[in-house]
Task: inverse folding
């Protein structure tokens, strides 16, 4: 392998390195498992068995596996005509047959997940990060594996290469997938700590054969290499670029959140043209107003005392997209629980904006926004749902859910952290997203997941489903905090 000279950096650009594969045989396209003339249509993310329904991946990175504390596990609950169905499920750990490695204490397998049909065989594949994995004597070097989809679900796996292992730690603490260079192949985005905090592995990623090269970059101040890239979202903001990234990190010393939009990751000098976004720790990408440009919701649950960009009780900022990335002609929409029309009231510690997700709950084509506030009412937690419309996100008809909402199973209790993770995805195949909510503090840290069926009027509590780790084979030893991660 060779390291061709990267484009010279300009200004305060981060150091970007590109790894290319030089062998002609390696560069030749790999044969798919079906003839090209009858190639399968690529599956949507998280449709692991190709039935047209999104499946549910639930991370429990603190789960005990084989007696090993915090080794980590991922449960996959397959979709059905009635939504997620726990009777059809898979448990994935590093002790699962066919997966590389062995479950060890502190591996934190399941700290991040992502999905795409990497090999374009008609079945989505699952990427799982284990940032606590010790690799070749490197404590917390981290690793990422891909588990392959098939007609019968997930089976078989492969470790994703780390080209920059000497410059990364906690490899796999953040994951995303997208066609970063516009060549039609899906590339893997991996966040880590260290001097190369944002790493790309070029597609296609296949079940066997060599990887196709990659690149890595260390972000300059104010990003701290000790925190690295803590979260990353991928989506098509504008037709001008196949995939853009929203990158999250933290500042040195203060730990304050930092967020940027990388409009075109195929270029090497990110900070010459990246766009600074409102600070936050998480984000979601989707077209709220159906104008052909995706919008970005950035969640910042921090209090002002902890982060100058924070707000009492937390906040979410919606940045509208346009041809050049952020649409600077429209002011960002800042939302908190004191915003008129938003249920509740902003109180210290609510952590409103700890999780955000954009999806279409009523099938009208406008992306709606789910917001988690796991600190609400002494950590009992709540979730707020706001609707998309042609004019943008609206608070009209906003609704809030807790475990005390009629029809939602359970009872709101201190420390449940209901809303620590939220998800809007169509598990039933009716083109309306179910609302899935995780409460990793439920039952003294066992954790639990709730699913509310999508409907024309929005998520309904009629027939709401709730289940904990035992229902999907995860051990309740220790505090697994089931639901700490959901479909990303």
Result:
């Amino acid at each position: 392998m060779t390291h061709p000279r990267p484009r010279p950096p300009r200004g305060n650009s981060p150091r970007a390195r590109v790894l290319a594969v030089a062998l002609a045989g390696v560069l030749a396209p790999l044969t798919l498992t079906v003839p090209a003339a009858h190639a399968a249509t690529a599956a949507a993310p998280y449709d692991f068995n190709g039935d047209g329904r999104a499946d549910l991946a639930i991370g429990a990175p603190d789960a005990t596996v084989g007696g090993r504390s915090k080794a980590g596990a991922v449960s996959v609950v397959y979709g059905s005509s009635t939504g997620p169905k726990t009777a059809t499920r898979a448990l994935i750990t590093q002790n699962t047959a066919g997966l590389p490695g062995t479950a060890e204490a502190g591996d934190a397998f399941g700290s991040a997940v992502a999905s795409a049909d990497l090999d374009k065989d008609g079945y989505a594949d699952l990427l799982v990060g284990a940032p606590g994995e010790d690799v070749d004597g490197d404590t917390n070097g981290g690793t990422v594996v891909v588990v392959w989809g098939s007609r019968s679900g997930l089976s078989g796996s492969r470790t994703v290469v780390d080209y920059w292992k000497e410059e990364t730690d906690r490899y796999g603490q953040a994951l995303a997938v997208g066609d970063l260079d516009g060549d039609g192949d899906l590339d893997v985005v991996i966040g880590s700590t260290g001097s190369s905090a944002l790493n790309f592995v070029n597609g296609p990623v296949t079940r066997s054969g060599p990887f196709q090269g990659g690149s890595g970059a260390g972000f300059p101040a104010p990003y701290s290499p000790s925190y690295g890239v803590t979260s990353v979202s991928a989506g098509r903001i504008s037709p001008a670029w196949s995939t853009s990234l929203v990158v999250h990190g933290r500042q040195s010393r203060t730990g304050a959140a930092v967020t940027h939009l990388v409009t075109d990751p195929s270029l090497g000098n990110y900070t010459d043209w990246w766009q600074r976004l409102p600070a936050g720790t998480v984000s979601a990408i989707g077209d709220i107003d159906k104008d052909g440009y995706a919008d970005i919701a950035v969640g910042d649950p921090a209090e002002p005392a902890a982060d100058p960009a924070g707000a009492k009780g937390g906040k979410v900022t919606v940045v509208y997209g346009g041809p050049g990335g952020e649409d600077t002609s429209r002011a960002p929409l800042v939302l908190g629980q004191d915003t008129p029309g938003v249920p509740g009231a902003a109180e210290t510690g609510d952590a409103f904006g700890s999780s955000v997700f954009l999806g279409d709950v009523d099938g009208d084509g406008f992306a709606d926004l789910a917001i988690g506030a796991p600190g609400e009412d002494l950590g009992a937690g709540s979730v707020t749902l706001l609707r998309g419309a042609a004019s943008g996100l609206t608070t009209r008809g906003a609704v809030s859910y807790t475990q005390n909402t009629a029809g939602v199973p359970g009872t709101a209790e201190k420390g449940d952290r209901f809303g620590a993770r939220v998800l809007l995805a169509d598990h039933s195949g009716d083109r309306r997203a179910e609302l899935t909510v995780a409460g990793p503090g439920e039952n003294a840290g066992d954790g639990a997941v709730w699913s509310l069926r999508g409907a024309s009027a929005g998520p309904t509590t009629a027939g709401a489903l709730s289940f904990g780790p035992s229902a999907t084979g995860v051990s309740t030893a220790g505090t697994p905090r089931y639901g700490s991660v959901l479909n990303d």
User: Anything to note?
Assistant: DSSP finds three helices and 31 strands in the chain. The radius of gyration is 21 Å. The CA atoms of residues 126 and 197 lie 22 Å apart. The longest helix spans residues 24-27.
